[in-house]
Amino acid sequence: MFYRASLQAAAALASLSLVAGCGLLSDSGSETSQQISVGTTSSPSTLDPAAAWDGSWELMRNVFQTLVSFPTGATSPAPDAAECEFTDNTSMAYRCELRGGLKFSNGEKLDAEAVKYSIDRILKIKVKGGPAGMLGSLDRVETKDDNVVVFHLNKADATFPFILATPAMSLVAPGDYPADKIRDDGKVTGSGPYVLESYEAGNKAELTKNPEYKGFADRKNDAVTIRYFKDSEPMVEALKNDEIDATYRGLTAEEVVALEDNKKDNNGLQVVETVGADIRFLVFHPDDPAAGRLPVRKAVAQLVDRDALVAKVYQGTAEPLYSMVPKGIAGHTTSFFDTFGDPDADKAARILAEADISTPVQMTLWYTTDRYGSSTGPEFEELKRQLEASGLFRIKLKSAPWTAFQEGFTKGEYPAFGRGWFPDFPDPDNFIAPFVGPDSVTGTPYLSKEITEELLPASRKVSDRGAVSKEFKRAQEVLVEDVRLLPLWQGKLYVAAGEDIGGGERALDPQTVMQLWELYRKQSW
To answer: Quick one: signal sequence residues (predicted)?
Structure first.
């Protein structure tokens, strides 16, 4: 989620700032239609769910439907297009019965065959770095009749319902989506809360309420305009000028702090902070002459000062992260701190010396310019400063827009690069499994038999997800031993709401994906 997931933002936060705009009334007792305009710096990389494992989920959640989903406040998947349950005690057969009368926005019937088609094409197309990697436990999809579909798994997987709840598993109309390639005409045919009326890549998306929708979403507005900004500064200006009513994803740390410190000058905004589950980390390519060497990776891990990074760049709007499983998720540990402790240049020097590695080590770090917000550049400048201050490294920084960046890392062109992860679902499995195996979402295969063949299979047999701490503690120890991934920080979630906008406290689901239908303009003051 990629992409899905949200604190995303420049600061690794998924920030939602809701403010006043020229408005209409809410659905609750309203007599006029409601339209909301929101801004974000995270534009979709694709409109086809079969290719999406990133921030594209934000739009998809609102225009597509999944069999099960995560209503606000839910801790496990709940019915959306279907009622589903495991039919055996081994978590290997998952049966779903569809709601009656479901249709896609083009009039096609949404039946069991359409469900099978939607899931099968993900595996057939198998986009590199795409959501096919989430379906490793799926053996086959069987249709029983028009309204019943059964997912037969090749191994026990108690997380499978969580996977089906992600926007990557969105149901698509077979008539409009090729079975063997990605749809690329800039259009969407779904059965979700909204219909995508028009879309201008990198600029704007116009959504209107879907009159045929049958699902869990209680829509509190009639239409939403999403404006995509390359940087947060013009987005904030648009917000202040009432050109948009709300923003989500992309506020910098400075902007969050300014909103908190200047509430009186910002139309009475109320800023609420909660712990988020999205994370930032470095990925090292195993074939690179420098990054491919374990002592080099360990030296980097020994030098990175997360406290300084968070303080200087994110001004407290994020917090240091010492494992790939963030705080707030079952199984969280501080494994990297337990192993490396505080930053120490002398220890890093010894690690390199013992491996007979000459210094300074030359290495290039890559980052994307338009996916995680405006603070990403300063973040990598600070990482460069820290590593070079030790005298052990000489760092070159390179960057690219997300589309080009994604193409580069999936081709294995980057020796080391920064990634963000926004949870597909709130389970420790989702912070380990996507990054290991031949189809790692990082685009860089990471083969670890202990994790993929022992720890994950054992944990997936357990339906009580709070009882799998032992397996995930060990998995995090393996990640520390390899240092193929280096966690940096996890974001905090900020919701800032103006006096006339409601629903902001409910707009982010447990996957931290924006549910636009929750936003509305209050009736009166």
So the answer is: 1-20
